[in-house]
Amino acid sequence: MASLTVRQIDESVKKRLRLRAARNGRSMEDEIRVLLREAAEDAGRDAPDLTEPPNRAANAARRNPAAVPANTKRILLIVGGGIAAYKSLDLIRRLKERGIHVRCILTKAAQQFITPLSVGAITGGHVFTDLFDPAHEFDVGHIRLARETDLVVVAPATADLMAKMANGRADDLATAVLLATRAKVLIAPAMNTQMWAAKATQRNLARLIADGIATVGPNEGEMAEANERGLGRMAEPLEIAAAAGRLLAPQERPLAGKRVVLTSGPTHEPIDPVRYIANRSSGKQGHAIAAAAAAAGADVTLVSGPVTIADPPGVRVVHVESARDMLAAVEKALPADVAIFAAAVADWRVAHAGTQKIKKAPGAKTPDLTLTENPDILSTIAHRAKDRPHLVIGFAAETQNVIANAKSKLARKGCDWILANDVSPATGIMGGDRNTVSLVSQDGVEDWPPQSKEDVARMLVARIVSYLIPPPLAGEGGERSEPGGGRLRSD
Ligand code: C5P
Questions:
Q1: Which tens digit of pLDDT belongs to each residue from 70-129?
Q2: What is the pLDDT of residue 134?
Q3: How far is the centre of ligand 1, averaged over its atoms, from the C-alpha of 344 (Å)?
Q4: Are strands 151-157 and 74-79 parallel, antiparallel or unpaired?
Q5: Could you say which of 24, 71, 219, 279 is catalytic?
């Protein structure tokens, strides 16, 4: 059988062929194969039109029903092997309802739960299963799959898939595509509660989030195992479709041109060159707010105490150790439109920190660590006569009388809003990934639902947007809309 060499084709034909192949999502070699097949089928009728101009989309669509119109959003859905895989059939429907073109990869384990046949019947296209698929690997299939998409959705994302992704494994089609793609990736984790809570899974999750991967769910509810419930159920198809829709929508940048300064994490107050006073703050909430503000277009300076999490993307980060350094860095970052103080600043420092390591000598008396008060950064900035940010937001992490303490803090510190949360050990908030906060302001107390720290961050940013850029008032005495759905009470 004769072999094909694109190089030997006339330059002008090659150019048109390239255009046509790109439009149809095929390699040039495959485009030629299609043309030859059509030519053979049409023998005696019209010869294939190699010179078809780009605007004859209808003709192209007739020849290649898989061709995707230029402005259609494309999702590559990777279905992992979990009981929630059956929901991916509904998810495909939900995505298609939104006019999204869906291609699907089933992992080997996913095929234990659903078949390529059922998925193909809903997507209306080929379902990909193998890294080395002779029918589709002619032009590095996994690379093309990775490139020809606007978003990759992994649903369900099993513990195993997450572990592979976090470690950059590429031993099957799904993981090879995930490694090769430049598109945004959204995962919908689904697994047993214990597997979700396992340190290794949480470590992998943190790694994936730090790598810029978006997540939706998991939700709380019944597990596949009898009599078990908890966190680990895959988000519902509608939720996943909505999250995918948000990621595909052109990025709104309502805070473009606004400057935001934040503090986050703990402070370390030196006792001597090797010892310090610290606290358990992880910085997760403050860093998430910095990321959400940057995603909304703000120019963000994050003054971070010592944390073990990654710097958020698109944010200017100043790393500091002590409260005094933190205050100096915040003052240097002014002027700003908004200042948010999420750091757990040590209230006291050692008055005379040793310049040498304090030695324990036989018979020597125990050192006296006299403490002195640290500057209150929030209060200092909120009371500034010059350059006070328009909106100053503090946090109140309390273990009792949360709202009452937050209200008195609002007045005492002179800030505009306080985000109050209960950090009693039983809540798991300190260092955890979820948070339940109330927004306390002069207008009252707004209780927000329990949610991930990223969602708290997005909700806060939405509130900041509507405060700085109020929507038009609906007639006399019209009310501002309150994004996020928090409940307002006036106690
Ligand atoms: O007084 P308390 O530490 O509970 O207040 C918490 C709020 O004040 C947080 O927003 C925290 O970042 C801020 N704060 C500060 N400087 C301090 C102590 C607290 O900015 N020295």
A1: 789 999 999 999 999 999 999 999 999 999 999 999 999 999 999 999 999 999 988 999
A2: 59
A3: 6
A4: parallel
A5: 279
Whether 279 is a known active-site residue: answer yes
Residue 340 CB–ligand 1 contact under 6 Å: no
So what CATH class is 74-248? alpha beta
| Res 5: pLDDT | 60
Mean pLDDT of 271-290: 95
Q: Is the pTM of this model over 0.90?
A: no
User: Does 50 score more than 70 pLDDT?
Assistant: no
Within the chain, all domains assigned CATH 3.40.50.1950 are found at 74-248
- Choose the residue to mutate in 341, 371, 393 for probing ligand 1, maximizing ligand atoms within 8 Å of C-beta: 341
**Domain span(s) for CATH 3.40.50.10300 in the chain:** 259-350+368-489
Pick the CATH number of 259-350+368-489 from 3.40.50.10300, 2.60.120.260, 3.50.50.60, 3.30.430.20: 3.40.50.10300
Q: DSSP assignment of 238-292, as one string?
A: HHHHHHHHHHHSPPP-TTTT-EEEEEESB--EESSSS-EE-----SHHHHHHHHH
Give me the phi and psi of 478, to 5 degrees please. -60, 155
